[in-house]
Amino acid sequence: MTLKDIAEKAGVSMMTVSNVINGKHSRVSAATIEKVNSIIKEYNYVPNLSARSLTIKSSHIIGVIVPLDDKEDNGTSVSYFDNPYVSSMIGVIERELRDNGYFVMIRAVRSQDDLSILMRNWNVDGAIFLYPRLGDRFEDSINAIVAENHLPVVLFDARTDNPEVINVCSDDRKGCYLSTRYLINRGHKKIAFVANYEGNPLLTDRFEGYRAAMEESGLGCDPDCIFSYSPSYEEGVAAGKAIAASALKITGLVTTADICAIGIMEGARLGGLRIPTDLSVIGYDNLAVSTYTTPKLTTISQNVIKKAETAMELLLEKLRTGYVEQPHVQLDVELVERQSTLSLL
Amino acid sequence: MTLKDIAEKAGVSMMTVSNVINGKHSRVSAATIEKVNSIIKEYNYVPNLSARSLTIKSSHIIGVIVPLDDKEDNGTSVSYFDNPYVSSMIGVIERELRDNGYFVMIRAVRSQDDLSILMRNWNVDGAIFLYPRLGDRFEDSINAIVAENHLPVVLFDARTDNPEVINVCSDDRKGCYLSTRYLINRGHKKIAFVANYEGNPLLTDRFEGYRAAMEESGLGCDPDCIFSYSPSYEEGVAAGKAIAASALKITGLVTTADICAIGIMEGARLGGLRIPTDLSVIGYDNLAVSTYTTPKLTTISQNVIKKAETAMELLLEKLRTGYVEQPHVQLDVELVERQSTLSLL
DNA sequence: CTGAAAGCGCTTACAG
DNA sequence: CTGAAAGCGCTTACAG
Predict the structure, then answer these.
(1) What is the architecture, at CATH level 2, of domain A3-47?
(2) CATH class for the region spanning B172-302
(3) Which 8-state DSSP code applies to residue B105?
(4) pTM higher than 0.85, yes or no?
């Protein structure tokens, strides 16, 4: 079944059928619309989108891009589709785009070449970069794509000032400011910060929030209280053990990922500390897992759903009008109080 | 840059360029190949896949389908891209398909119409149904698609005997047989089974494993020990409370999802039981979260990665040859021992 | 309100 | 080993 077949059955030209399918009703009489639609229904016709894409030079496909990393140890590669942050975003993205007539193609890319090939292969209408570091890693490539093709691109948590790209972040500084403040307000004085933030702009912002809270309350920012571990479960365990073993009498800590906080709780326990009795812990992300632990984790919520929704609103507007007024938005952040902290007051 | 442009620059016909791109080297001289390739490189040419798709009537796109459910309470809909089981599978699927020259389009579908429109819209080369219940829910639709278009389709955990569809399951019966046996071997006598298995073939298989283990060891299958709660965290909490409140002196239980087991631990604790001292718990799935709880969860691993890999092997073979010898495979299952059970011996 | 023609960028027989 | 032509299924000016 093609346009041509439908046109013949209906006794009209292909162009007329095309017009009714595309809702250009001003150009077709009501009777014709009626007739054509009934034939379409009867034969269960569905347009071939490759053909349409070829003529209108736009596919209505949006590429959702995730980085592809090579693992040094065993030669395999990892993508990030199973990262909980990434996969909740994909759910929202798919829904919003589907509701607006777009299709989503997912792809892990290793290099800038991979990326640009994909974009041009399919005449992609836009691209969404799903992992924070991507914004920086592919910065040149992204700027090139945007410049050449005027292609809508959305980034998350990137440091870009290119007004052509959409960028949605959260208030990372405030996140750790809030968690640190929360502990200070409950009488904690020796508060650790756990993350290898150096060289990572996003984590550095969070660190700045911690530092600001410590300094403004006169506690100061003791370098010994900074534990440089990366935000994974395993590293968290190591950090937790280190804290338990330290002579600093740390009573509370803030970190930059729930997974890490969960590891820290485990490591601290293995080191003999009770949570929260001996050590208060605050995570970051408010992932579902943060409610599955014992004690349930107090954490910073960056409202991932809203983040994705905001980005999709902007993307759809750019797709529609070619322009968005405010392409860079920063979302607020809040503390979710659960059970992993103790007040010393 | 199109084929035509490249052909002109190289001073050959479009067809020759096409042949070198598609590796039909027998039809082109080495010198020509050399020349054409260098021009392609120089101008950074990338073929338009919509056009190719249109002529060869195959897109190299594989649809990854997830169900779209309407929530009764608030009118919104949920897809399952953020389900940990689904998202780990997507990671593997994307990798295998990408490595073999395919593209993956993800889509949540509500009805059989949604589905068939998508398939035909894009001339999809194959479809993967990612959520267990899908196999049954869209059974007619799937059979129709397969019959009409001879389209490779892969299902997981489905009850189908259609030899045209690929179906990868795990040994569900054995899963709960193993977990139940494990408790029996450690002296447990009152062992509960938690799941609303009735009407659900997959969960019924797991229940049968539990029952077989109980009966073969002479403990029998006491209906009072069956707790009919669905496999979610919230329902798990309710089940845990119910078990804590019951007069049955249950000392151990098996269930059909880690999330549910985690809820059960929480509910049981709220009901005053210590895990595993008063109650041993075994989960199912071996999700990452099962290592984040306290105590870490003993559980049944169904090796999700292998499941997805096996399915992709079969799919790729079917895509290549149109046929697979053994389209229905059942994978083995194993118990992963951690900390959530206690031996009574 | 409707139609005939050209064209999007590719591949596939068919000739040479 | 290479090429000219037709065609995949659609949409877009251009005419009427």
Answers:
(1) Orthogonal Bundle (1.10)
(2) alpha beta
(3) E
(4) yes
